[in-house]
Write a structure and sequence with these properties.
6-stranded mixed β-sheet, single chain, alpha+beta, 25 strands, 412 residues
Length: 412
Amino acid sequence: MAEQMQWANALSTRPSLEAAVTDVVEQAVSSLAAPADLGLVFISSAFASEYSRLLPLLAEKLSVPIMIGCSGVGVIGTTASGEPQELESEPAISLTLGHLPGVNLQVFHLMAEELPDLDSSPDAWIDVIGVEPSPGTQFILLSSAFSSRINDLLQGLDFAYPGSVTIGGQASSGGSSSQIALFCHDESQGVQPGLYRQGTVGLALSGNVVLETIVAQGCRPIGEPMQVTKAERNIILELDEKVPLVVLRDLISSLSEKERVLAQQSLFVGIVMDQFKLSLQQGDFLIRSILGVDPSVGAIAIGDIIRPGQRLQFQLRDAEASAEDLELLLERYQQQQLSQPSATAALMFSCVGRGQGLYGKSNFDSELFRRYIHDVPIAGFFCNGEIGPVSGSTFVHGYTSVFGICRQLTAD
């Protein structure tokens, strides 16, 4: 029988960095009971003044050849009793260790100015990223939220590594970009332990591993799908050959009073990703913000490029819609995976706009996840933008929880 993949996560809320690092290393090493090939570390911005000490402290107590991580206003991990915990706005460190037989791992750090133009060849992207394409390549990206050209990088990865899966998040902080931190270390590539304030840290995984994704954008559709009949860049000029603002006003007037109130502050558009799909459900839309309206011509500006011929549907978001959306996606995932090898770990990249602020209680998304996918360590952080695929293309999202579910490709 082939050697089994193992993961362990540890969480500490000790207010001293040394004590927290000692705590998570001791817990994770004793839980793993096998040599660690990979470490993932998420540290809360309460430790912002001490970020430069994190990797040296970890290196003193832990031997792991590859490590990536970043800062977040909150971190997510698993308690010693196996309960998921989302720790917002308090000192905390989440450390995950993986024993990954048969898995190839490679780390890279890219600055915005190093990225090729979007019309460059796949080879130009492969040269910059430094990862040879292979079937089943998967990426975990941790990016600075400032000037990282993350959208260009995602398009480049989709282009140069067709069929790959990419998940991750943009590091968050309680303040300026100087409080953001990205960490990486790759012994085999000669990448020394480093702390970065900008760019993107990436981890490529291939071999005996699969990353499956759930991208919960937290909205429910209202009204009916419509076709964009006239548009310029991100401005919708006609919907079903009608004035968009008139269409929207008619839709809002047809809603219940509760929904009308919600539409005043939590109205979005969902762009249909598969133009040939007739029966639409959660996961078929790319959710984007409404940036503004022009009453003089009745146009609506949204947070993405829109083309004539695309379909869209207006969406509402609140705690109830968000919970319903995640539960539907989890149910669907559970049904699809019944015959597959069990999940071994999960990563969670959740928007700073979710969590306690949205639900009025802690640990909502992670506990709902655990109800469907049991007994796996879960780790992650609260992001300034969440990275995950919708209908085969990768995007940066807002108000979203992206889950990456890791399992061995072969059971034996």
